[in-house]
C-alpha cells in the first residue's frame, strides 16, 4: 500500500478547573495552577507536546450578585476580574497554552449544541421541582440532604422553592459509572478520594437540575429550547474541557486533543468532576479523561483558606517577599499531592532558609567561588571518566529517571525530594573532599580539577531538571554556567551529556536566595 501517513501525536492535555471570578485569586487557585504548570513543563522538558488549559468560570448567581454589589453589569464585572487571574499566572510563571472564558462565544455555542443533542437523545426532561435552595452555595437540596434544616455545606438558612426546570438523567448512569471507577485504577487519584466517590455512589443518584428560571437568574447561557431558562453554571463550566478543543465545532482538532490526560481539581469539587462530568461525557458518547486528580486544601489554623472565610493569603505579597520559586517550592514540597497542608508564612520562611538558601543557594555559591579562586572562574578540564570517591555525579545523571518516575506518578514532592537528596549529597561531597586542602598541594591539581568538575556537572544537571519545578532559579544557574535553557531531554541518554563545557567562564552572580530581612528571620 502506497499510502503514507504520519501518526498524529496527541499532546499531553492537562486542565485546571475554571476559576470562579467572584473574588480575586488566592493561594488555593495558585496551588492548582502551579501543580499543572509543573506537570506541563516536565512533559515539554521531555520533548512531549503539551496542551495546558486554564480559564475562568463567569456565570451564575454569585457573580450576578458580586456585579450588583459593585453597581456593574455582570459582563463588565467579569471583564475586569479576568486580568487579575491572568496577571497572577504571569507572576507565578504559569505557561498555559490557552485561556478559556465561559462567556466566550465558542463555548456558549458548544454548550447549547450539547444540550440540544442530549435533549434529542432523551437524556433531559422538564419537571417541576421543590427544593431548598442555598444562595451562597447555589445548591438545591432535598429535604433528606438538609442538615438540621440548613444547608449541609455551609450551614446557612435555606429557602423553599418550587420551579419548573430541565433535568439531566444522572440516575440512569449510576451503575456503569460505579463499575468504570472500580475497573479503572488511576481514574480518580488519590485512592482515598476514589473510595470517597465510590461511597457516594452507594446512595441513589438524583437527576441533576441543569437550568435556572430566567426570572430568578438572567446571568447565564441561554437554554437553547426555552426562553425562560438559563443553563446551570456547573453544567456550563464543565463543558469547557471539550469546548476549548473543538467538540461540536472542529472534529479534527477535537480528535487531536481528546481525551484529556489529567483534570487537576481541589477535593471540594471532585464530585462534579468524578460524577457529573463522566456522565455528561458518556451521554454525549465522548471518551473518558484519563485521570482526575484531587488535591487537598491549604489550611490556616485548621480551616480552609478561602476568600469567603476572610483568611486568604495573598500570593502576590508572598511572591514579592520570597520570590516566585520559593512560593512554588513551598507548595510543591510541603505536602504530598492529595493531602491537606498547613500554610503559614513561618513555614515558608523556614523552607526558604534551610532548603533554598542553605542547601541550593550555598551549593552554587561554593562551586562558583572555588572556580573563581582556583581556576580563574573557568570550568577546569578534567577526565569525565575519572572516578572520584563519593561523587554525586552518577546520582545527578540518574535524576532523569528518578524525577521522571515521580512526575509520572503526579508526585512533585517526591521529585523535589530526589533532587534535594542530591543537593545535600553534593554539599557533603565538598566537606569530604575539602577542595581548599587540595588547592594547597600543587601535586593535587588534577584531583582538584576532578572534584570541581564533578561538582559542576552535578549542579548543571540539578539546574536542568529543576526547570519545570523552579523555572526562575534554574534559568539563573544555567545562564551562569553558559548552558542553553529549555533543552529537551527525551531519553536518559540525552540527559547524561556533561552539559558544561571545559574552559567556560562561569559567573558567580548575586546570591540565588538572599538572606531574609532580620525581622523575617526572627519570626522563624
Ligand atoms: Zn450553603
Average pLDDT metric: 93
Strand content: 5-15%
Strands, count? 16
CATH superfamily of the domain at 344-523: Isoleucyl-tRNA Synthetase, Domain 1
Structural class: alpha/beta
Q: List low-confidence stretches.
A: 1-6
Distance between the termini: 71 Å
How many DSSP H or I helices?
A: 21
Name of the CATH first level of the domain at 344-523: Mainly Alpha
At the fold tier of CATH, the topology name of the domain at 344-523 is: Isoleucyl-tRNA Synthetase, Domain 1
- CA radius of gyration is 27 Å
Helicity level, as a percent range?
A: 40-55%
Gross morphology = elongated
Judging by the overall fold, what is the CATH architecture of the domain at 344-523?
Orthogonal Bundle
- Characterize the largest beta sheet: strand count, sense, and whether it forms a barrel: 7 strands, parallel
Identify every distinct bound molecule in the structure, by name, code or SMILES. Answer: zinc ion
Amino acid at each position: 500500500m502506497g499510502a503514507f501517513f504520519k501518526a498524529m501525536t496527541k499532546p499531553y492535555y492537562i486542565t485546571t478547573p475554571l476559576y470562579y471570578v467572584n473574588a480575586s485569586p488566592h493561594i488555593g487557585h495558585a496551588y492548582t495552577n502551579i501543580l499543572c504548570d509543573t506537570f506541563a513543563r516536565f512533559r515539554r522538558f521531555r520533548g512531549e507536546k503539551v496542551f495546558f488549559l486554564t480559564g475562568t468560570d463567569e456565570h451564575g448567581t454569585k457573580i450576578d450578585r458580586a456585579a450588583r454589589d459593585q453597581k456593574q453589569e455582570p459582563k463588565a464585572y467579569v471583564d475586569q476580574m479576568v486580568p487579575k487571574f491572568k496577571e497572577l499566572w504571569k507572576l507565578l510563571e504559569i505557561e498555559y497554552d490557552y485561556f478559556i472564558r465561559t462567556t466566550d462565544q465558542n463555548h456558549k455555542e458548544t454548550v447549547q449544541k450539547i444540550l440540544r443533542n442530549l435533549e434529542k437523545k432523551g437524556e433531559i426532561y422538564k419537571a417541576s421541582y421543590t427544593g431548598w435552595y442555598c444562595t451562597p452555595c447555589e445548591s438545591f437540596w432535598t429535604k433528606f440532604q438538609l442538615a438540621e434544616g440548613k444547608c449541609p455545606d455551609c450551614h446557612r438558612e435555606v429557602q423553599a422553592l418550587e420551579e419548573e426546570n430541565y433535568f439531566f438523567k444522572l440516575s440512569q448512569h449510576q451503575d456503569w459509572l460505579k463499575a468504570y471507577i472500580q475497573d479503572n485504577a488511576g481514574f480518580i487519584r488519590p485512592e482515598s478520594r476514589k473510595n470517597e466517590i465510590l461511597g457516594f455512589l452507594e446512595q441513589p443518584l438524583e437527576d441533576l437540575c441543569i437550568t435556572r428560571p430566567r426570572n430568578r437568574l438572567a446571568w447565564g447561557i441561554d437554554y437553547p429550547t426555552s426562553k425562560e431558562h438559563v443553563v446551570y453554571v456547573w453544567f456550563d463550566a464543565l463543558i469547557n474541557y471539550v469546548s476549548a478543543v473543538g467538540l461540536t465545532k472542529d472534529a479534527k482538532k477535537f480528535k487531536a486533543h481528546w481525551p484529556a490526560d489529567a483534570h487537576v481539581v481541589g477535593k471540594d469539587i471532585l464530585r462534579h468532576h468524578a460524577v457529573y462530568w463522566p456522565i455528561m461525557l458518556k451521554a454525549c458518547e465522548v471518551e473518558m479523561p484519563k485521570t482526575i486528580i484531587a488535591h487537598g486544601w491549604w489550611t490556616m489554623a485548621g480551616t480552609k483558606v478561602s476568600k469567603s472565610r476572610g483568611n486568604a493569603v495573598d500570593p502576590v505579597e508572598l511572591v514579592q517577599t520570597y520570590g516566585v520559586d520559593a512560593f512554588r517550592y513551598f507548595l510543591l514540597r510541603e505536602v504530598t499531592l492529595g493531602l491537606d497542608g498547613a500554610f503559614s508564612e513561618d513555614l515558608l520562611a523556614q523552607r526558604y532558609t534551610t532548603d533554598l538558601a542553605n542547601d541550593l543557594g550555598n551549593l552554587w555559591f561554593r562551586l562558583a567561588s572555588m572556580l573563581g579562586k582556583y581556576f580563574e572562574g573557568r570550568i577546569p578540564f578534567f577526565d569525565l571518566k575519572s572516578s572520584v570517591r563519593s561523587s554525586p555525579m552518577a546520582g545527578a545523571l540518574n535524576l532523569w529517571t528518578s524525577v521522571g518516575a515521580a512526575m509520572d506518578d503526579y508526585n512533585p514532592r517526591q521529585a523535589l525530594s530526589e533532587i534535594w537528596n542530591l543537593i545535600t549529597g553534593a554539599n557533603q561531597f565538598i566537606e569530604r573532599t575539602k577542595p581548599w586542602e587540595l588547592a594547597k598541594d600543587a601535586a593535587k591539581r588534577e584531583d582538584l580539577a576532578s572534584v570541581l568538575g564533578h561538582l559542576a556537572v552535578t549542579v548543571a544537571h540539578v539546574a536542568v531538571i529543576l526547570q519545570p519545578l523552579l523555572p526562575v532559579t534554574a534559568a539563573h544557574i544555567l545562564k551562569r554556567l553558559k548552558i542553553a535553557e529549555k533543552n529537551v531531554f527525551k531519553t536518559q541518554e540525552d540527559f547524561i551529556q556533561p552539559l558544561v563545557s571545559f574552559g567556560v567562564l562561569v559567573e558567580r552572580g548575586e546570591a540565588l536566595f538572599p538572606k531574609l530581612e532580620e525581622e523575617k528571620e526572627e519570626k522563624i
